[in-house]
Every structure is written in structure tokens, then in C-alpha cells.
Amino acid sequence: MTLRLALASLFARALTVGMTILAIGLSVALFLGVEKVRTGAKASFADTISGTDLIIGARSGSVQLLLYSVFRIGNATNNVTWESYQDIADRPEVDWIVPISLGDSHRQFRVMGTTQAFFDHYKYRQGRALAMSDGVIMDDLFDTVIGADVATTLGYSVDDPIVVAHGLASFTEHKDQPFRVSGILEKTGTPVDRTVIVSMEAIEAIHVDWQSGAQIPGQSTPVDVIRGMELTPKAITAALVGVESPLQTFALQRAINEYPEEPLLAILPGVALQELWGIVGIAETALLAVSAMVVVTALIGMMATIFSSLNERRREMAIFRAMGARPATILGMLVFEAMLMAAFGALLGVALLYAGLFIAQPIVDSAFGLWLPIDAPSLREVYVILGVVAAGAIVSMVPALRAYRLSVADGMMIKS
Amino acid sequence: MKQTLSLIAFVAAIPAFAQETRQLDAHEHGVGMLDIAIEGTTVAMEFHAPGADIVGFEFKAESDADLAALDAAIATLRSPLDLFVVPGAADCTVTEAQAELESDEENEDHGGEHKDDHAEDDHDDHGHEDHAEEAGHTEFHAEYRLTCDNPDALSKITFAYFETFPNAQEVQVQLITSAGARAFEVERDTPILDLER
Fold it and tell me: Which spans does this entry mark as compositional bias, Basic and acidic residues (chain B) (predicted)?
């Protein structure tokens, strides 16, 4: 009876009720969406590196080292000398070690020098290995392997020649040494997608004719001569390390951090990520608080519409009372209507969220490399819906109590 | 830390070698550090805590009372399962437990890790007291190795440590398991580390 009355009453005012529900729906979608993006970003970040026990670089901060070595965000403060790298690689605790050399670019993409071991040991998304979608891993000095995004953005395919620029966003390009695309990696959803991978020797080869950052005029070493040269790297940017046994990780980390010949830093990727969350956590909380405030605003909007509806429903209420409805019934009916509106709004919000996710998922993935998973509604969404309904009931108490106190006579009188 | 102190002693002693590396670890009173690595049934733990947390002072112990306090603290630190209580179901036994005070005086036993021979050479010839005061800090260092027959039951660690040492305020925990590395902070108010979180 009450349900039928409430529904009929809502239908009778379809337009205002619809707007209220839409406002609540949008606010709930925003609130849940912020949370989705937040957890999606976190998972994306956490999935970028897996299976690496330590990351080694010049001594700076652990977050900074993580950002530049794995996420290609920011730059290294210093390089690590090849001697130190060899020293660490020779330690008995080290199972495998992969050097990384950054600093050159190809168009807007970073060039990373590394060894073949990178393809064996770099793991993402809980231990998944890199796979080639086309071509093979580089085995020639001037071979490159490019990430999926590099290939699609620049339209490269296997065997295409490419030119590697010195420094980031530099005008001078290393035109003398034409590189060749030997393979294209499958999409990983990690920064590897946006990386051009070459061998460590290639990084040295690029810089044969370059001294103190500028090309020596009139000097250009032919490719054949470069091939004959000793191209041992002098420095690396960072290194990924796997240890023999987890029990040795801390000892190795300490040994590297106290390495007397060079100030080095070894970090545990998982711990550094957590530190990063600690930093961005404040912004996340602020974002979540803002979107929660939007939900509150929508609910207050609903309260305002109920208030204004009280005036137009004076007669209706009075008739109910005259027919024997007690004031409590009126109150209950108003609160129930509000709860229905809030529930419809919250459900609409969830629907909007999923619709939005379906549309935005590929766009966000290609634009930001951020994969937003579309999962079935979790307990969290259920709680949010229940919370919104409860909050709707509470805010509607204010106008409902007002209706509760109005007398029958008040509704019966004709106001001019 | 130790090596650093010995390096400082060395650098101060021989100016000709003054370009030698100098570095000191961060040292924060009230904050200890516990590293835990778990592989199979073996659990390796390494614990560092400032002298101030454990015995309440970091000067060189000379009085009998201070020396006794140091000895008592080291003895306490040698029984890890009384300080860091693990669930009984994990069935852990201590297979190895070492504890020591790291200060300038007790450096000899650590020479092995250290590449600079000369840093050690001058070690006994110079007034350590001065340098110890210069550096001003001491640290307790403990290493444990446990065997836990049922490592899956290692769901939490209760830090009775805070009851034993009233000056300690916080322990920063790093945990390495097959699932990766994580960090925790355990504070005096909530002295329980939930490993399954």
C-alpha cells in the first residue's frame, strides 16, 4: 500500500523526481569512479614490476629511484659506474642482474639500453614475462626492440630504420647510426610499451662521436669502424637485481647501501611503492572527500525538492489526514519516498559507472597506460548504495518532520 | 654503522687520507628497525635499535650499573621470541640468535665485511673515546634465524618488545616473502603486526 502510494506519488512528479535521481546518480557515479581510478592506478603501478628483488641506482631517494628506473618518470641524479656494477654483479648473493641505461630518446619515447637478460627477468603483472608480438629480440649492435605503443603511435613495423636522438627532447639527432627495428613487444600496460630498447653497447655506439654533449664537427665515425670498437659501457643508470634467496636480500641491500667506493642505493621495489602511496595518499583522500561532498550536495538537493514539494502537496497531505492517516504515516511516506529516490539514484550511479567504464577503459588505457578493470559490483558498491539510501532517509527527516507537525486544518484552508 | 665509525676514527687520525669516503647512517631515537625474510620454513630477522631505546643512554658505559644494563639488554635481545611473539601454531624455534652493541670499541669482529684494510689498522692506536663521543650514537644490532615448521601460521607478530623496553616508540618493519617486499610501522599504541594485511 505504502509502496504503491509512494511510487505513484513519485511518478506524478516525474520531472523533479527524475532530476533529483539524476543528480544523486551522477554524484554516486563520481564517487565510485574516483575509487575505481584510484585502485586501478594503484594496481597498474604495482603490476609494473614483479619478480625483481632489488633496484640499484645512484644514491637519492627510494621513490625517486623507483620512478625513474621503472616508470621512466623524472631523471637520475647520477649514473652508476660500470666498475661498481661489475662489483655488485660478482657478489655471491646475486642471482641475476640487468643493467638499464636511460637518457636518450626516439621522438617522444625513451630509449633504454639493457642486455638480453632484461627479456628473461623483467616481469610484470604477477610474474608475466615479456613476449614478442612480431620479430625477434635484438642481436645486432644496431637492432632495437620497441614497445607496443611505440609501434602503434609511430606506425613502425619490423625492419624499419629508426634514428635515436641524444638526450630527451633534443634537436640534435644521431643521424649517423641508423637503427633497425628487430622486434615489437606485446602490449603489457607498463612503461615498457612506451620504450625503445637497445643493447648497452648501442648506447655507447651512439655516443662515439659525441663529446661533452655536442657532436665533434666534421667527425663522423663510419658504422663499420664503430662495429670494430670496444663498446663496454662506462656507466649505467640503474640495475634490476634478483637474489639467490630472499633471506639474503637485506644483507645485499645493506652491502650496496654501504658500498664504500661509490654512493649507491638499493631499494626493495614493493617497499618503495608503498612509500609512494604514502605520499600520494593525501591527495587520494582529498579527492575521495571531494567526491563524497558531491554526494552530500546531491542529497541536500533532494531535501530541498522535498521541502518545496510540501507546499504543492498541502492538499494531498490534508486529504490523507482527513481520511484517517496518522501524522506518523505521513512522515513515513515522505521518508520512504526519499529512500526510494536515493536508492534509484544510487543504482543509476552504479549503472552510469559501468557504462562510463566500458566507454573510457580503452581510451584511458591508450592515453595513460592505466588499465581500469571492470569487475562485478563488490561489497563496497553495495555499502555505498545502502549508505546513500540511509543518508537519504536521514536528510528527508527534516521536511518529513515539518509535514508531521502541520495540522489538518492548515492543509484544508485556502491560502491566498 | 660500525665501519663508518671506524672510518671516522681513521679519517680523523690520518689527514693524508682525508678524501676517504665518509658516511653515517640515519639514527632516530625511539625508532627501531626490523627486517624479516621468510623462505620456506626459514625465517631470518635482523633488528637494529638505538642505544637510547634499549638502555636509555648512548654514552660509553663505564659504571658497573651501566655495564650491567648493557649486558642485560644484550641477553634480552638474544631471545627474539620473547620480544617478537609469533603465534604458537607456527611452531617456531630459534636456531641462531646474536645480539651486540655497535659502537666504536667493538669493531674488530666486523672487519670481514669491510674492504678497507687500513681502516682497521689504526684502530687500536687511537683514542676511541673521543671519536665515539663525536659520533655520539650507539646502536644495538641483533640477528636471528628461526625455523618455523608451519610458516603459513605466521599471521601476526606481537611486539612484547615495547613492554620490555619502555623507551622504544616505534619499529619500522620490512618483510620479504615469496610474494615480494612490504613495509609496516608498528607503534607502541598498537604493538601488533598483522602480516596478512
Answer: 109-133
